Structure formats: C-alpha cells, structure tokens
UniProtKB/TrEMBL annotation:
PANTHER family: MEMBRANE-ASSOCIATED PROGESTERONE RECEPTOR COMPONENT-RELATED, NEUDESIN. The keyword Iron applies. It is found in: Endoplasmic reticulum. Residues 120-140 are annotated as: Disordered. Residues 17-112 form the Cytochrome b5 heme-binding domain. This is Neudesin. It comes from the Eukaryota. It comes from Galeopterus variegatus (Malayan flying lemur).
Length: 140
C-alpha cells in the first residue's frame, strides 16, 4: 500500500481530500503498538479492540502490563510496574501474555526498560535469543 507521506499534491487532489481529511487518513494508517512485560506487539489487526474509540484503546502506546494483569483500564494501572500484584493477577498476566498477545500479534521490539538498566547501561540479563519469537534474521 502506498504510504500517504509519499503522495504527491496531484495524488491528494485526485482523491479530492481536504488537508484535514488527508491528515485523518494518515493517522488511521499508523500501526497500533502496545507493550506487555516489555515486549512490544503490533496490535493493528485488533483495531476493533485497540483503535480510536475502541474499548481497550487506553492500553496502547505504552507498557500496560499492570492493567492487563488486573484487567483494569484505570490510568494508574497503565504501567509496566507489577509491584504488589497478587499471585492470581500474575498468573492471569502470563495467561493473557501467552494466549492473547504472543498468539495473535507480531512482536516488533522490546521496551528500553527491558533491554537497559535504570542508568541506561545495557541490561546484561537481556538475552535476545531468550525473547519470545526472537529471530536473528528479523533483528539484523
Ligand atoms: C465488562 C467488562 C468486560 C467485558 C464484558 C469484556 C469482554 C471481553 C471479550 C468478550 C473479549 C474477547 C473478544 C474476542 O476475542 O473477540 C475480551 C478481550 C479482551 N479484554 Fe475484555 N472485557 C471486559 C473488560 C476488560 C477490561 C477492564 C480489560 C482491561 C485490561 C480487558 C482486557 C481485555 C483484553 C486485553 C482482551 C484481549 C483483546 C485481544 O484479543 O487483543 N477487558 N474482553
């Protein structure tokens, strides 16, 4: 599909759109990402869940691990932080991580928090080959 950013003025005139319409179209065309447990998933194919106005839109654009674990959309829960979660919530998190996210959506990367330490130095415990769906061909 042609990327709207490469459309010439002529092409824009042809589709007869106003600038606002073209901008809206460009936005619609953006992929939708969310992270769970520091793994970034492309959830664009789940637009009916995650798109603008969809019920789980609040989970996108960030690491929403806590919200997924607690099945909560409370803004305070839309964080990577798992402090104080119950064993049941952690189990539920792993379940959804495996059965929904890993099963349905392509992995497009990892959050900085997963690959770097707080001071920005590399996290030596991060082993790409241990990450879900890691494929050297995709990485380089
Ligand atoms: C009244 C409350 C809720 C109902 C009735 C409900 C219902 C559902 C249903 C029926 C699905 C499966 C849809 C399908 O596979 O076609 C689903 C998926 C899901 N729900 Fe809920 N839900 C509720 C609240 C929540 C809340 C508060 C969260 C907060 C995180 C949440 C997170 C999810 C997630 C992450 C999925 C998987 C979406 C995907 O496949 O990508 N749900 N929900």
């Amino acid at each position: 599909m042609t990327s709207p950013s490469f459309m010439s003025g002529h092409a824009i005139a042809q589709i007869g759109g106003t600038i606002a319409e073209v901008q809206a179209f460009c936005k619609e065309d953006q992929p939708i990402y969310l992270a769970v447990k520091g793994v970034v998933f492309d959830v664009t194919s789940g637009k009916e869940f995650y798109g603008r106005g969809a019920p789980y839109n609040a989970l996108t654009g960030k690491d929403s691990t806590r919200g997924v674990a607690k099945m909560s959309l409370d803004p305070a829960d839309l964080t990577h932080d798992t402090t104080g979660l119950t064993a049941k919530e952690l189990e539920s998190l792993d379940d959804v991580f495996t059965k929904v996210y890993k099963a349905k959506y392509p992995i497009v990367g990892y959050t900085a928090r997963r690959i770097l330490n707080e001071d920005g130095s590399p996290n030596l415990d991060f082993k790409p080959e241990d990450q879900p769906h890691f494929d050297l061909k995709d990485e380089f």
